[in-house]
Amino acid sequence: MTKKEPRPKTAQESAVVIDFGSQYSWLIARRVRECGVYSEVIAHNAPWRVVAALKPKCFILSGGPASVYVPGAPLAPSYVYESGLPVLGICYGMQTLAYQLGGQVARAESREYGLAMLYKNEADVPLFHNLPDAIPVWMSHGDQIIEMPPGFTSIAYTENSPIAAIANEQKIIGIQFHPEVVHTPQGKEILRNFLFKICDFEGTWTSRNFVKQQIARIRRKVGGGKVICALSGGVDSTVVATMIHRAIGEQLTCIFVNNGLLRREEIERTLRTFRNNLKMNVVYVDATDRFLERLKGVIDPEEKRRRIGNEFVTIFEEEANKIGKVDFLAQGTLYPDVIESTATVSRESATIKTHHNVGGLPEVMSLKLIEPLRYLFKDEVREVGTALGLPEEMVWRQPFPGPGLAIRIIGEVTRDRLEMLRAADWIVMNEIKKANLYRQLWQSFAVLTPLKSVGVMGDSRTYKYTIAIRAVTSEDAMTADWARLPYDLLARMSNRIVNEVEGVNRVVYDISSKPPATIEWE
Ligand code: XMP
Asked: What is the pLDDT of residues 286-301, one digit of tens each?
């Protein structure tokens, strides 16, 4: 079995988020890091040993779906209160601390959900420093505090919650609203006040410091060993490879598998960047035929993913064996994946789509893992890429799924269809970039539908395929909204696609958000 990457030795102290199962827990950590303070999410039952390694300078108790008065509801571990460190309880976190410290929580007469106006009780408490007397906040709760614990005072209220924020002298604070969500416009100011006015953080968590620490760590860990890394050309694997290459140079070999499902010019661009600009050892394998053979006749999306994933693992293993003795496998695992699998208490999600990146590799190859991005969010990975001096074009690449164009061709994947999709996709990308919208969009691409319809070209009837254009805005791909692209841009893309792509006579624009749709069509 492979060993998981240990936590980074944080040179600095951190804000530890105790997770009670809220979908926003990771967002709290992310907002805290945006303030320059390192933060991690920890399960509510994590032992002190795990937490101590993070050098906590404060605790933030997350929201959650439970009610404190129900038997078995998760509570904050005793070290939170025994440590003497500042505590910020958010929503359920506030109710937990009130309950644990001797107050009373009960079901509210009416649920408070959505925007509310928060009014301060005192002119200036540190948490609301420099904020107006009335602050718009996002509420989402059914329980409320009916009696404060001894020593606490109410520092703010809303129309529905007479006790919407509480504090005591020991710097234990509770807030009923969510400062981490964008619907609380001054939420970041409130978190900043907590971190800097109450906890005295220095705010030294930067991507530059992170790169320095990680490079030193990788050198120590790898010693004289050999590392392999799967390149996809995407930002995560590029940042991982670059950081490891900075640390150990020639001891790293990258393997770039062309599965025949990549976008136009992707192969040339990736090889040029890695071999010529970054001067890395890259093994390039053109496995197009093997992948297309495996995909023959397959129309089920999950089966496509499974076959692509398995073939990738087989090829990667073959290539790794040719290199000789290898000690480490580098991967671009990100923090949201880690949180999904470990930190939360009550997040059970159905499999919507099986995501394949290099999944399955660690299990079949008995290699130790290096995952330098394991504690970073996507936008932090981009910052690290910039700190490493990678070109903007690489750092700001839109995400591209592991199974590539195979899941953007609805139905069987064939060479002809791939060519058709590549040509349409190229036009979409090209026009989006010309309109200066590429960076603002989470993803923008073309989908080849199996739908044929009647058209007219010249004086003749046609019966050809329909291309769908998909462009979405999103922060993290968990939810997404369709992008309100300008009409003339849509017109240009449509015009070019029907004129330049043989086999297509109709273009549609996908105006569904996620949920209920997903970003990819398959
Ligand atoms: P959906 O379609 O589930 O996609 O809304 C969310 C994000 O994940 C990407 N995606 C994948 N990435 N392997 C990947 O590496 C996959 O099988 C896969 N399926 C979807 C998708 O592009 C979007 O960014």
From this structure: 999 999 999 999 999 9
Q: Quick one: tokens of 403?
A: 């199974």
**Cβ density class 483-504: b for 16+ within 10 Å, e for less:** bebeeebeebbbebbbeebebb
Q: CB under 8 Å to 295, separation ≥6 — which residues?
A: 304, 307, 308, 406, 412, 413
Per the listing, tokens 């968990």 go with 478
* Rounded mean pLDDT, 164-179: 95
Neighbours of 388 (CB within 10 A): 20
Task: Tell how far the Cα of 352 is from the centroid of ligand 1, in angstroms.
Answer: 10
- Dump pLDDT digits (tens) for 315-331: 999 999 999 999 999 98
Q: What is the pTM of this model?
A: 0.78
Q: Looking at ligand 1, which residue's alpha carbon is closest to its atom 12?
A: 401
Nearest Cα residue to atom 20 of ligand 1: 401
pLDDT digits (tens, 9 = 90+) for 334-348: 877 776 655 444 343
DSSP string, 420-434: HHHHHHHHHHHHHHH
> What one-letter code names the amino acid at 465?
Y
Question: Going edge to edge, which strands form the sheet with 87-90?
Answer: 38-43, 14-19, 56-61, 87-90, 172-175, 165-167, 153-157, 104-120, 134-147
Answer yes or no: are the C-beta atoms of 178 and 90 closer than 8 Å: yes
Q: Which of 412, 398, 316 is nearest to 365 (CA)?
A: 316
